[in-house]
């Protein structure tokens, strides 16, 4: 790693921020020490057990020999022979000690071979039949000096401990390097992500050379970028649309005001002029209010939910309000079906009003505009249906876009229409946890929204 990288690494290690590298290395070290500790302990105890076993075997073999030597003694007079034999047997065997009780006197073989200070003894007491003794048995204690084995075990313990420690250090060092190496792709991805600037919105993270485990992360990150790009493009288009929509009425207002200021105007002319300016300004104010509403919904405000027991009643009220507009175009209105829903009444009225004003505009004279209310797959569907020119299938998904107005509407377009009505319907549906839908087929167009039924609504 370069020096710069190290400095960057240090800067990144902020207090309170967990370092994955440190965490993994520490765990590797702990596990290595534990694992090696267990192995070393097993080795130590297995060695101790085999030493003990060997000592017991040795003692057993010597016990048999001593028994044999004592049993060979037939009479009192053979005691001296026994002493000689035992002296010969124990000559130079400083790791062994034998104690016999002969006529109440304890005799040791070999003499002074093992001092009390250095003694680490494993001993065995036994009796040998001896008819020539007054009590008929001889009491014998045979002991084996195990201090050499003990020293060896101590050395083994230290060696194993040092090996475990050394092994742990080695595993920690290699583990740290391995972890650093395996996390390098993250740095590479971070470097790639750093290159992603708004000017290069279409670029994505390149995951081709990355490990399989990073693929879900890269995919999700790229999906987020995709959504961001779409939102960014929409925002840019929205800004351009807003500027475009404001430019024409403002230019009209400025032109009219300049005209009014040139020459002398009668007070009636000025009143007319002010009246038309007020209309234009009210239209602009409506546009700005709609945009503000959409901006608030984008920021995530939710609807104030109350139980609307009968959507049909609410729809009839809104239909009544649009009666004049419908009648003007030779249309009739009707409400079919009913359901209850938890929703904000005012917002629901607004959505329905937008749908009805479209239907009133695009419905053929002499036909009927129907407000349909129904429940399907656990959702309340509220739609407005009219008979009129169909929306082309390739355009149907775009009608909910902000400022979208299809060509077909040009015939009907009035200056008052900005193309925000259905995006407001979509926003209202979103605020209630629902969605919008539109079908247009053989002159029947149905546009509406789905809502969550009253009992399941959690807004
Ligand atoms: N019932 C319908 N029949 C045919 N086309 C429709 C219908 N409803 C909507 N559209 C199309 O969808 C477009 C967008 O509708 P929307 O309500 O968003 O805007 P608008 O009615 O043009 O303007 P605004 O609602 O802001 O006054 C319309 O311009 C029209 O082309
Ligand atoms: Mg509309």
TrEMBL record:
Its main location: membrane. Signal peptide: none annotated. It is an enzyme of class 2 (transferase). It comes from the Bacteria. It catalyses: ATP + protein L-histidine = ADP + protein N-phospho-L-histidine. Keywords: ATP-binding, Cell inner membrane, Cell membrane, Kinase, Membrane, Nucleotide-binding, Phosphoprotein, Plasmid, Transferase, Transmembrane, Transmembrane helix, Two-component regulatory system. GO terms for molecular function: ATP binding; phosphorelay sensor kinase activity. Its EC number is 2.7.13.3. It holds the Pfam family HisKA. Residues 241-455 form the Histidine kinase domain. It is found in: Cell inner membrane. Residues 180-233 form the HAMP domain. The chain crosses the membrane at residues 20-46. One of its GO terms (cellular component) is plasma membrane. InterPro entries: CztS_silS_copS (IPR006290), HAMP_dom (IPR003660), HATPase_C_sf (IPR036890), HATPase_dom (IPR003594), His_kinase_dom (IPR005467), HisK_dim/P_dom (IPR003661), HisK_dim/P_sf (IPR036097), Sig_transdc_His_kin-like_C (IPR004358). Member of a two-component regulatory system. This is Sensor protein. It comes from Denitromonas iodatirespirans.
């Amino acid at each position: 790693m370069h020096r710069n990288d190290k400095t960057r690494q240090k800067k990144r290690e902020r207090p309170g921020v967990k370092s994955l590298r440190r965490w993994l290395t520490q765990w590797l070290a702990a596990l290595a020490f534990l694992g090696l500790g267990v192995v070393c302990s097993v080795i130590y105890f297995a060695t101790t057990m085999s030493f003990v076993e060997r000592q017991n075997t040795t003692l057993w073999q010597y016990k048999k020999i001593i028994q044999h030597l004592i049993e060979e003694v037939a009479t009192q007079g053979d005691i001296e022979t026994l002493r000689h034999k035992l002296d010969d047997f124990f000559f130079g065997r400083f790791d062994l000690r034998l104690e016999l009780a002969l006529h109440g006197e304890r005799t040791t073989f070999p003499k002074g071979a093992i001092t009390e200070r250095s003694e680490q003894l494993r001993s065995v007491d036994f009796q040998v039949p001896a008819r020539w003794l007054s009590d008929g048995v001889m009491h014998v204690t045979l002991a084996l000096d195990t201090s050499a084995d003990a020293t060896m075990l101590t050395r083994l313990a230290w060696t194993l401990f040092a090996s475990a420690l050394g092994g742990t250090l080695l595993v920690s060092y290699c583990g740290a390097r391995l972890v650093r190496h395996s996390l390098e792709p993250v740095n590479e991805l971070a470097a790639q992500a750093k290159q992603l600037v708004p000017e290069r919105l279409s670029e994505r993270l390149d995951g081709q050379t990355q490990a399989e485990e990073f693929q879900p992360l890269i995919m999700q990150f790229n999906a987020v970028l995709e959504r961001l790009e779409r939102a960014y493009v929409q925002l840019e288009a929205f800004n351009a649309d807003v500027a475009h929509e404001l430019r024409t009425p403002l230019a009209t207002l400025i032109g009219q005001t300049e005209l009014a200021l040139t020459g002398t105007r009668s007070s009636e002319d000025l009143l007319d002029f002010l009246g038309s300016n007020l209309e234009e300004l009210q239209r602009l104010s409506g546009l700005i209010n709609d945009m503000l509403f959409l901006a608030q919904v984008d920021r995530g405000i939710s609807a104030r939910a109350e139980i609307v027991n009968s959507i049909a009643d609410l729809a009839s009220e809104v239909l009544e309000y649009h009666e004049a507009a419908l009648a003007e175009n030779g249309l009739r209105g009707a409400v079919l079906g009913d359901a209850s829903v938890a929703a904000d009444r005012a917002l629901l009225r607004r959505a329905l009003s937008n749908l009805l004003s479209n239907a009133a505009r695009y419905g053929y004279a002499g036909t009927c505009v129907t407000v349909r209310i129904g429940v399907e797959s656990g959702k309340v569907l509220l739609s407005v249906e009219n008979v009129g020119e169909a929306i082309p299938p390739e355009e149907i998904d775009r009608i909910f876009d902000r400022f979208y107005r299809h060509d077909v509407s040009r015939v009907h377009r009035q200056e008052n229409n900005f193309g925000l009505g259905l995006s407001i319907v979509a926003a209202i549906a979103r605020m209630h946890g629902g969605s919008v839908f539109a079908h247009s087929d053989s002159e029947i167009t149905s546009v509406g929204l789905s809502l969550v039924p009253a009992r399941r609504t959690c807004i």
